[in-house]
Amino acid sequence: MAIDWTHSRGRSRLTTAITLLLPLLAACAGARNTQPREVLDDSSGSTLFVVQQPLLFARSRSDLAANARDYVTLVALQEDRSGKYSSWLIAHRWSTVDPRMGGQSASVTAPLRIIADDRELIFKPATPPPTLLQNRELIFAPRGAGAQSAAYAVDVPTLRYLATASRLALRYGDDALSPAYSLWDDSRSALQELLSGATGVSGR
After folding, report:
1. Long-range CB contact pairs, 196-200, < 8 A, 24+
2. How far is 192 from 163, CA to CA, in rounded Å?
3. What is the pLDDT of residues 53-103, one digit of tens each?
4. Which residues contact 120 (CB under 8 A, 6 or more apart)?
5. How far is CA 84 from CA 11, 36, 134, 177, 199, in A?
C-alpha cells in the first residue's frame, strides 16, 4: 500500500505546532487581567480607578476551628473629583470564625499597621468616611454580614513602596492576638498597573 508521505509530514508539522502552542495558550488562559477598572461613583460624581484585584491577607485561627482564618482584603484606588486626585487604601476586615467564638469585635476606628520589609506604616481611618465606601461591590467588600470596612488616605509614593516591598504583613491597633496577617494572595501586579497611570500632586 502506498503511503502519502506529504500528508503524513503535514500532519506531523501540525501536531508539533499544536504541542508547542499548548503551553502558551495555557499561560494566556491563566494570566490575570491587571488593568485597573474605571467606574463612576454615583454618590459623589467622582471617577474611581480601582485595582483589578485586591491584596488578600490572612492568619490562621486553628485554635478555634480547623481551616478557620481571619482575613483582610486590601484595595487600592485613586479618586478623581473634577481633576482633584486622592489615593486611598480600603481595608475590609472579616473572618470565617463563628462570631460567638471570635472574641473581641473588630473596630472600624482602629489604626491599620502595615509592615513592609523593615518599616511599619501606620494609617488612621478617614473620619468621616468617604462616600466611596458605600459602593461595596466596586471596592471588593466581602459578601455577608460581619465585614468591617474603613478607608485610609495614602500618597502615591507610599503605594509604590508597598508595591515593591519584599515582605508585607499587617495588623490592627486594637488587635488582641499577637500573630500578624500575612500576605495570602499577592496581586501587586494589579497595584503596579494602577500606579503606572497614577495622577496627582504626589504621583508622576
Report:
1. 197/36, 197/49, 198/78, 198/87, 198/156, 198/159, 199/78, 199/80, 199/85, 200/78, 200/85, 200/86, 200/87, 200/156
2. 6
3. 999 999 998 777 777 899 999 999 999 999 999 999 999 999 888 665 444
4. 113, 114
5. 60, 19, 20, 39, 9
Q: For residue 162, what is the DSSP state?
A: H
Task: Kindly tell me the sign of the dihedral angle through the C-alpha atoms of 152, 157, 163, 166.
Answer: negative
Residues of the chain with pLDDT under 70: 1-32, 98-106, 145, 199-204
Q: Is the pTM of this model over 0.90?
A: no
Domain boundaries, the chain: 37-99+107-196
Cell numbers given for 167: 515582605
